[in-house]
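Retry 2 of 3 after timeout on previous attempt. Resubmitting structure tokens to design endpoint.
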């Protein structure tokens, strides 16, 4: 797929190819230095999550705790691998399908790649009622973010820890 291309699966689910250059919701800061700092922080966070998971397993914690932390770790690793190598092994995909291992090299050096997001669920799209303060009459799409499987893994892990917090964090 090329950047921005979309395939409708149902009226509320699309496979939509986009590349996220920064953090959640595409937020960026600090240019190249900011991207390097973000990637180094993510790698350090993975180290911390590995330590947390090992400590949790050794303490004999519940399986919910182990699953939750494992899902967070898996998603974090997936997103870091994407940002580490995607730009190195693929060419730019603006207006064309990216080439795998292009002769001229990828579009970005190591640690400067973008994370591929592709899951889009615009469950509702339309105008909000006029009687709503501030946003009344404006066009609105409910669930606008485009995300990937790694993001789902992180969100599910955090959700498990949150829902079962009384069992996990005694």
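Retry 2 succeeded. Sequence:
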């Amino acid at each position: 797929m090329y950047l921005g291309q979309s395939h409708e699966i149902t009226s509320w689910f699309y496979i939509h190819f986009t590349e996220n250059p920064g953090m959640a919701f595409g937020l960026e800061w600090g240019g190249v230095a900011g991207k390097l700092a973000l990637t180094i922080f993510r790698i350090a966070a993975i180290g911390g999550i590995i330590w947390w998971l090992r400590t949790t397993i050794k303490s004999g914690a519940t399986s919910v705790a182990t699953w939750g932390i494992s899902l967070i770790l898996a998603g974090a690793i997936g997103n870091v691998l994407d940002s580490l190598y995607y730009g190195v092994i693929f060419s730019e995909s603006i207006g064309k399908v990216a080439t795998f291992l292009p002769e001229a090299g990828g579009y970005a050096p190591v640690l400067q790649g973008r994370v591929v997001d592709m899951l889009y669920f615009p469950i509702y799209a339309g105008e909000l009622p006029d009687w709503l303060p501030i946003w009344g009459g404006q066009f609105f799409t409910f669930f606008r973010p485009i995300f990937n499987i790694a993001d789902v893994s992180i969100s599910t892990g955090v959700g498990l820890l949150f829902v079962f917090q009384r069992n996990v964090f005694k």
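Attempt log closed. DSSP finds four helices and six strands in the chain.
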